[in-house]
Design a protein that fits this description.
The chain is mainly β and 541 residues long. It is built from three helices and 33 strands. The radius of gyration is 56 Å and the shape is elongated.
């Protein structure tokens, strides 16, 4: 005691930390001396304080509340009622965010704080601690934690709704889908959905159906007229605002050509031609296009948008996804464009089944007409590669490119850029030769490795046989024939010169054997007379 100089007994307790406590009276200012001593020495510390400035209140207790759909009034009691307290309330939001609310409102038997701006039908976790208002020293311990749920209210916002229309005989089947938009809140524990439809033109009696919270789609059958469809969420308090769709009058189906779109690491990128008449755009697609229940999804975009990156955890490489782009005005949607693409293209799963439809000694015609290029493929088929080579040697056919296999063997490669061209003729082959060949389809993801070949044997070239006949056999026959008819040919081509002794004139009666007679030139009428003017013979004559 600083003023009375009396020593006050202090009971020391050392558990987690050392403390000392004593009873106080009217005296408010104290001088505390703490001495610590061991065999090595002694240490002393002093502090002078006013006990009214060192108040550590007891924790608040007995919490209770009164709430509406957006407010909570929290009440509690304090043991130190003779001290003016300042309290702080901690509010834990559903998203994990912590808010602190200060309060000094104290009544005779309780204190309170009002928490406003809360969400309906939402759990909030609260606790309170207090400190002396006059001279703040430290907070009390926290009160017990209390979880409070606000009351229900009518659903806020609208449902995000969409449709899929299937023409049928005499009308249309409309499958309706809905989901909670980012701005929608159920604001209650028990929720259901009310679907209502009526003709948009003649104001006929509306039809409706109620569905529990486990449903997010339903199918209705309507006529060929234009219909107005509304979907509302309902809880124990009231309905939400209606979401409206206008189904147009049934007309002929407008066929649109599908445009190809490209995938990226983050999704599938889609662009479209914007038009100022529309107030929003919608893109829909199926997460599982190969299944009957394909899990239809849709996404809305602002009117000044002309592109979007569509992503989904369900997208996988090698699956073709189809997208439809709609323009919407006054709750009436019109199909604008169709797109199709892959998150990432993969090589084709199967090679074309090749048939030989024509084979000659120097060419082979191949066909794979049954090969599909539709959505069953793991990529867009961009064309085909035809690989060919003689079995016993590398290939070097005219008009081809070289393709080297991992074993360093060389194939001839031909490229077909049109995926619908499923026939090809390989020319400049050698006759009577065995060839190996394979046809590979390729996509934006490439093609599969070459593993198996098919084999063809080119026939012998009959034209060579004809040439052999012309160049060898025919001349040989001519030579043999000439040899056989040599005498006749000689007589025809080189006739013998007649001798007088063999002349037929000697067979006349005037000529007898052993007789001799000089035949005068005047006795004969020659066909031609040649006079040799050699000097010696002339003299002899």
């Amino acid at each position: 005691d600083r003023f009375s100089r009396k020593t006050v007994l202090c009971t020391v307790s050392c558990l987690k930390q050392c403390s000392c406590s004593w009873d106080i009276d009217q005296q408010k200012i104290y001088n505390v001396t703490v001495t610590v001593e061991n065999p090595l020495g002694k240490k002393t510390a002093m502090d002078v304080f006013n006990i009214t400035h060192r108040i550590y209140p007891a924790a608040p207790f007995q919490l209770w509340d009164a709430c509406t759909d957006t407010e909570i009034t929290l009440y509690w009691k304090c043991r130190n009622r003779e001290i003016e307290l300042f309290c702080q309330t901690e509010v834990l939001q559903p998203d994990g965010k912590v808010e602190l609310h200060n309060s000094s409102e104290v009544h005779l038997h309780f204190s309170k704080v009002t928490l406003s701006g809360l969400q309906p039908y939402t759990d909030y976790t609260v606790r309170v601690h207090c400190a002396a208002a006059g001279h703040f020293w430290r907070w009390s311990e926290w009160s017990e934690v209390q979880t409070i749920r606000t009351r229900e209210a009518a659903p806020s916002g609208k449902l995000d709704i969409w449709r899929e229309i299937t023409p049928v005989w005499g009308g249309q089947n409309v499958t309706l889908f809905w989901k909670h938009a980012p701005s929608f809140r159920a604001n209650g524990g028990s929720i259901s959905y009310e679907v209502t439809w009526e003709k948009a033109e003649d104001g006929s009696e509306p039809e409706s159906v109620s569905l529990s919270s486990v449903y997010n789609s339903t199918r209705i059958s309507i006529g060929t007229h234009s219909y107005r469809i509304s979907i509302m969420a309902k809880n124990n308090v009231n309905y939400s605002l209606p979401s409206i769709l206008i189904i147009p009058r049934a007309t002929g189906i407008k066929e649109l050509e599908e445009g190809q779109v490209n995938g990226t690491d983050d999704g599938i990128f889609i662009t479209w031609e914007p038009k100022p008449v529309y107030d929003s755009y919608i893109i829909d697609w199926c997460n599982f296009p190969m299944l009957q229940l394909c899990d239809l999804q849709w996404k809305r975009f602002e009117p000044n948008t002309s592109s979007a990156l569509i992503n989904s955890a369900a997208f996988i490489p090698g699956v073709r996804y189809s997208f439809r782009v709609y323009g919407s005005v006054a709750n009436r949607a019109s199909l604008l464009e169709k797109k199709t693409g892959y998150l990432r293209e993969l090589p084709p799963l199967l090679d074309p089944t090749v048939e030989k439809v024509g084979l000659t000694s120097n060419a082979v015609t191949l066909s794979w007409d049954s090969y599909p290029t539709n959505e069953s493929q793991s990529g867009f088929v961009r064309g085909y590669h035809v690989y060919m080579s003689p079995v016993q040697e590398d290939c070097s056919l005219k008009g081809s490119k070289k393709h080297v296999l991992p074993d360093n063997s060389v194939l001839c490669k031909y490229t077909i850029d049109n995926p619908e061209e499923k026939r090809y003729t390989v020319k400049h082959l050698l006759s009577n030769t065995k060839y190996k060949l394979v046809v590979k389809a390729y996509t934006g993801g490439g093609e599969t490795p070459i593993v198996n070949f098919i084999y063809v044997d080119t026939p012998f070239n009959s034209n060579l046989l004809y040439l052999l006949v012309l160049l060898v056999i025919v001349p040989s026959l001519v030579a043999a024939l000439c040899l056989w008819k040599m005498k006749w040919v000689k007589e025809c081509c080189c006739p013998a010169i007649p001798t007088p002794n063999k002349s037929k004139v000697l067979s006349f009666k005037e000529f007898k054997i052993g007789s001799e007679k000089v035949l005068k030139v005047s006795d004969c009428v020659p066909d031609m007379l040649t006079v040799d003017k050699k000097k010696g013979e002339a003299q002899k004559l």
